Amino acid sequence: MILFASEAFRPMAETLAECAGLLPSPFQAARFENGELHVEVNTSVKGERCFLLGSIAPPDEQMLCALLLAHTLKKEGARNVTAILPYLAYARHDKEKPAESLGTAWIGSMAQASGIDEVITVDVHSARAKKLFPIPVVSLSPAEIFAEAIKRFGLMGSTIVAPDEGAIARCEAVKGALRIPCGETPYFEKHRTTTGITHVARIGAVSRRVVIIDDILDTGGTLVSACERLREAQAEEIYIMVTHGLFTGDRWRKLWQLGVKRIFCTDSVPIAGGLDGGRIERLSVVPLLEQELCPLSRV
Question: What topology is assigned to 2-140 in CATH?
Fold first, then answer.
């Protein structure tokens, strides 16, 4: 089994290759003078099972490179191509709206047309996103990773809170990993307005210290609104655990003013080290990927 990784994911690829027994192989992606992208692989892949580790998130060059690489591998005779996309971008574009694009379905069709047979990701945004893909999508839960962080950082006994109803299942998965009774998970009723996200009601009691669990921190609008309501409920210490930390813009930094002590996110999206003075804790998804890939290496 051969692993091809984009430059941003090289450190993860080195660890994963060693753990899962994959053969790392370089490839080159460059542009012709006219700006058109081309890819070249340096290893014979005929009859081989190939994995590409990378991203289809903006900038769009990442998506084009991943799709062109997959197409090249199939052209060169690869038996199977699995795309390891720790963060499955465009998965939030999963709602049918008149006159608007359905980005999730489009990305799925592009992946299939490029020769990708399967996608492995971490914590896909929704079950509907998986259904919109015409190829299998394996979504790995980060619950065990979050549970370990809760124990390691002394956060046992905190109230686990969902920022909206859609995040309740993620919270319950973490509780299950912690071997604590699920009970009822406090959550907020979330509404989208023309000016952003607002939470109108909290369902369930919270303690002085809370842990919010969600899949994505993008601009931070949902989490800022949830933390404002938690402060009104007398929560004093707030910890946030998200699978994918995008950290777009600056609005999310308001979280530090609302009692947030630390933000935990996985390394599914490469970000600059030392962001916000070390208050952002990075959690590796390599153990999840290793558990998924190791059985395949024995086939």
Answer: Rossmann fold (3.40.50)
